[in-house]
Amino acid sequence: PDLGDVEQEQDLSLSIARDYGWGTLTTQAGASIRSDHSIAYGSLDLQRPLTGDVLRNLSFGIAINGPSYETALCRVYCTQSRVSAGIAGGLSRWDFFNLSVEGARYQTRENEGLATGVKLDGAMGYVLTQELPRWDVSLRGVLQENDLADQAPDSLTAMRSAPLTIDDLLPAEYRFLGVGTSVQGGDTPTTRGQLQYTLDAHTGWQWPAAEPSYGLRMSLATSWLSWRDSLKFNLVYANSLTGDVDDSYSQVSLTYGYLF
After folding, report:
1. Which terminal residue of the chain has fewer beta carbons within 10 Å of its beta carbon, N or C?
2. Predicted TM-score (pTM) of this structure
3. How does pLDDT run across 134-176, given as a tens digit for each residue?
4. Which of 152, 142, 144 is nearest to 213 (CA)?
5. Is residue 202 helix, strand or coil?
6. Cβ(125)–Cβ(134) under 8 Å?
C-alpha cells in the first residue's frame, strides 16, 4: 500500500523484570522514531503464580501508546492503550487452559481517537509429553468487538493519495476458532552457547472474512556472555494478525537481556 511519508522506523525499548516472590513485575519504556511522527510508549505487566488445584496464574497489564498489530495498516498508523487481565490453570498436569480479556483504545500517532474495543482470547489443550521437548495441542479462539469512529482523522487521509476509512485500519468485529500446537525444547541457557527453542503454529477459520487463518512463531534463546545474559531471536509469520487474509504478515526481532 501507499504509505505516504512513512519511509522507515527505528524502535528502541528497555524492559526490566523483577521477581518479588509473590509475582513478577515487568516494566517497559520505549520510543518509535519516524520521520512523520515519533512516539514514546510504556507498559506495566504483572504475573502472579497461584497454588490452587485449578488456577495456577493470574496476570494483569496496562500499556500506553504502544504499537498495534491488529492489521498491517494499523501497525503503521495506529497506537494502542490497553488494560488487560488473564487467568491460566488446569485440572491436572496434563491439561491446561488460559483466558484473557482486554479493553483497548486505538488512536493515531498524533493521538486522534480511532476506536475502542474489547477482546476475549482463550485456549484449552492437552500436554502430550511433559519431558523436553514438551509438546502440546490446543483448541484456540478469539472474539473481538470494536466501536469505530465515524470517519478517519485528517492526519490519515492527508498522508495517502486515496481516502482512508477506519475500516481499512480496524475491523468492527473479528472471530477466530482453530487448533494449535507448541513444542518447547533445549536447556535453560545457563552457560554460553546453550540453546532454548519454542515453535508454535495454529490454523483455523476467521470471520467475518470467512477464510482460513494460519500463524507460525519461532523463538530461539541462548546465553551470549555468561549465565546472567540472554540473546533471543523471534520470528512471526501469519495472516491472522493482519486482518487481510490475502496478505501474510511477518515480524523479526532480536532482544538482549541481562539478569541483575
Report:
1. C
2. 0.82
3. 999 999 999 999 999 888 787 777 665 566 778 878 888 989 9
4. 142
5. strand
6. no
